[in-house]
UniProtKB/TrEMBL annotation, chain A:
<keyword id="KW-0812">Transmembrane</keyword>
<keyword id="KW-1133">Transmembrane helix</keyword>
<dbReference type="InterPro" id="IPR009936">
    <property type="entry name" value="DUF1468"/>
</dbReference>
<feature type="transmembrane region" description="Helical">
    <location>
        <begin position="7"/>
        <end position="27"/>
    </location>
</feature>
<keyword id="KW-0472">Membrane</keyword>
<feature type="domain" description="DUF1468">
    <location>
        <begin position="8"/>
        <end position="148"/>
    </location>
</feature>
<protein>
    <submittedName>
        <fullName>Tripartite tricarboxylate transporter TctB family protein</fullName>
    </submittedName>
</protein>
<feature type="transmembrane region" description="Helical">
    <location>
        <begin position="125"/>
        <end position="153"/>
    </location>
</feature>
<dbReference type="Pfam" id="PF07331">
    <property type="entry name" value="TctB"/>
</dbReference>
<feature type="transmembrane region" description="Helical">
    <location>
        <begin position="81"/>
        <end position="105"/>
    </location>
</feature>
Length: 154, 514
């Protein structure tokens, strides 16, 4: 068995299942156990124990083969960029609310995913305003959900 | 008769008509754009359906479902890239036919086959659901536990690839479903004092994270976001006469029943049905060498079967509360959002809702036929939508949708975390279908297990002494052994050079899940 991606992944799963078992052991039922009831611990412990067995099975079956990477280096860079923008978007929404954050971050997402496409600033601006307005109208006026206004403006 | 009027009046209400039309168009768009699917469409629109009444919500989600499965043929035929896994086999003959200047014929055959598959399969499911539900209400917690267990195991073992990956994904879904207040005794589990987790991991946050955010980011990371070139010049009319089409009646019937049966089995769905039906059509054809060159029969087999799988998947969903595929799992989620438990009592407690669901599927099938016929020249333009704009708008909808469900930013954060979880699962080759099934069925599995043990005097033995429960458990155990038998058989076939048509095609495209 080689220490490839699948072996590391299986080991991480075993650790995770171990944590689930430890946390489950600390659970307490709010009521006195009825006859035959297994209580709140048993089910997650059973699932975690089965997870350990399956992780070992995965390690034994896939550990022998060369692991194929999910993405190349460029692909992972793209994943990192997208999650960074999304985290930024949520943080901005928390601080400055829906309107400003969506106006700023939707064009950022387009630029990040543009590939070889040439983008015109005017099109980007129109897209940003239209998306923000349509979503605002649908959620605020039709679905009746008050969108976040941001902690800075409260 | 009264029910028929209720359904017709619900569907034909002007506001509902608009919602169904919008849902069907949206479904076709999601089905047509490669990388997106009916599943993504339903996931994205779940928060929107939250504000609607339960009937309107199910009409909306049902129309997206039908549009989404049928829409996949547009990109499969015009650009040779399946819009959804359900249309993989449509590419084999649809694309060569379109390249040969017969786009209209390819689209016409695909549209007619889609309609027949959907419409008749939904009619059949309307007959079978009440019969199955009538029996299912007599089942106790023992049978329900075994049924849920059997469904999860079937999803895991029948899917392609290493069985352990499916099992791990299902177990992870079950562990995630344990977060929150436990059934029966109300103990708080894995909440770490976070109030937002007391009611469990939010369904919308999880679904959007796994099926929308992660899917889009994965597509972008793989570079699947380039806008294709499409030639729409040769598209006009159906390209095939009804008489000529009907001459393939035997193939239509065979493909239909293949799709219906595969759709009925939990976890398989349209993604496999189209490949099996195509392989069957080729194997039984007098001219197998014509397949792959733009042959009518290839498109008929694929499109009839993948749409027939819809009716098959709906039967266990409506009658038993067990999703047949990922999209029906989402539809069950949609019902749960409205406080409606999917299960055998659904037909007794909410018959109007169930028949509205059937009604909208039939109505949407007709709508898809009309929209795709008249929009034959327009729909290809969907594929010209710059993906960067489309994805950016979808990601913004995800954020607002996650927020709208609970009115907290916590849910948006949860959605991103679930996106990361889905990405990590992809790193470990774990499929997402068993994960969502484990998450949806986990609470049902646990509460029925605990109820079964509490009600019985013989503990776990009761699960083995009740005949239906025993049969279901035996099927589950038997299907656990199936992948090992399959692998041995495949290895033997490969060694002797007798690889099956389905295996060959599965190797061309990744068709592990819808």
């Amino acid at each position: 068995m080689k220490l490839n991606k699948n072996v590391v992944f299986s080991l991480a799963l075993i650790v995770f299942a171990g944590v689930v078992i430890v946390l489950s052991m600390q659970l307490q039922s709010l009521f006195l156990s009825q006859s035959g009831d297994i209580g709140p611990k048993a089910f997650p412990i059973g699932a975690a124990a089965a997870l350990i067995l399956c992780a070992i099975g995965k390690m034994l079956t896939e550990g022998r083969h060369e692991a194929k990477p999910l993405f190349d280096r460029e692909g992972w860079k793209r994943v990192g960029i997208m999650f960074a923008i999304m985290i930024g978007y949520l943080a901005a929404m928390w601080y400055v609310g829906y309107l400003i954050s969506t106006l700023v971050f939707t064009p950022m997402l387009v630029v990040a995913m543009r590939e070889d496409r040439k983008l015109r600033p005017v099109t980007l601006a129109i897209f940003s305003v239209v998306t923000t307005t349509v979503l605002y109208f649908v959620f605020q006026n039709i679905i009746m959900v008050t969108l976040p206004t941001g902690v800075l403006f409260r | 008769m009264e029910m028929l009027f209720t359904v017709i009046s619900a569907i034909l209400t002007p506001s509902n008509l608009l919602i169904i039309l919008g849902g069907t168009i949206l479904g076709i768009v999601f089905g047509a754009v490669p990388g997106l699917s009916a599943t993504t469409g339903i996931a994205l629109m779940l928060p929107v359906s939250f504000s609607m009444s339960s009937t309107t919500g199910i009409l909306f989600l049902g129309s997206i479902y039908i549009g989404g499965i049928s829409g996949g043929l547009i990109s499969a035929i015009l650009i040779g890239v399946p819009g959804t896994p359900a249309s993989v086999a449509t590419c084999f003959d649809g694309y060569p036919m379109a390249k040969g200047g017969r786009s209209s014929r390819a689209l016409g055959i695909g549209i007619l086959s889609s309609f027949i598959g959907t419409f008749i399969s939904v009619l059949i499911s309307m007959i079978f659901c009440p019969m199955l539900a009538h029996y299912a209400v007599k089942m106790g917690p023992w049978e329900f536990f075994s049924l849920c267990f059997c469904a999860i195991i079937l999803v895991v073992t029948m899917s392609k690839g290493n069985m352990f990956n499916g099992l791990i994904a299902g177990l992870l879904g079950i562990i995630v479903s344990c977060i929150g207040i436990a059934p029966i005794d109300g103990a708080k589990r894995f909440t770490f004092g976070v109030v937002n987790l007391y009611s469990g991991v939010n369904q919308i946050g999880l679904i959007l994270g796994v099926f929308a955010v992660a899917t889009l980011i994965k597509n972008f990371a793989k570079g699947d976001t380039k806008t294709p070139d499409i030639d729409t010049k040769g598209i006009s009319g159906f390209g095939i006469s009804l008489r000529e089409y009907c001459s393939h009646w035997l193939l239509i019937i065979k493909s239909f029943f293949i799709g219906l049966w595969i759709g009925f089995l939990p976890g398989l769905g349209a993604g496999l049905a189209n490949l099996v039906a195509y392989a069957q059509a080729k194997a039984s054809s007098k001219t197998p060498d014509k397949f792959g060159t733009g042959w009518d029969e290839g498109i008929i087999a694929s499109e009839t079967s993948n749409n027939a799988a819809i009716g098959g998947a709906v039967i266990p969903m409506v009658a038993l509360g067990i999703p047949g595929d990922t999209a029906t799992a989402m539809l069950i989620g949609g019902l749960m959002i409205h406080g409606i438990d999917a299960g055998p009592l659904l037909m007794t407690n909410h018959p109007e809702l169930v028949y509205c669901f059937f009604g909208v599927m039939l109505f949407a099938a007709v709508l898809v036929l009309i929209l795709q016929f008249f929009g034959m020249r327009t729909f290809p333009y969907i594929l010209r939508t710059p993906v960067c704009y489309l994805y950016a708008a979808i990601l913004a909808i995800c954020v607002v949708g996650a927020y709208a469900d609970s009115r907290t930013m916590f849910n948006c954060g949860l959605m991103l975390v679930m996106g990361v979880v889905a990405m990590l699962m992809a790193v470990g080759n774990l499929p997402t279908s068993p994960f969502i099934l484990g998450y949806i069925l986990g609470p049902m599995l646990e509460s029925n297990l605990r109820k079964g043990l509490t009600y019985s005097k013989n503990g776990f033995a009761t699960f083995l002494t009740r005949p239906v429960s025993l049969i279901l458990l035996l099927i589950a155990v038997g299907s656990l052994a199936w992948p090992f038998i399959r692998d041995r058989r495949d290895a033997k076939r490969k060694a002797s050079g007798k690889e099956s048509e389905v295996d060959k095609m599965s190797n061309v495209f990744d068709v592990e899940e819808d």
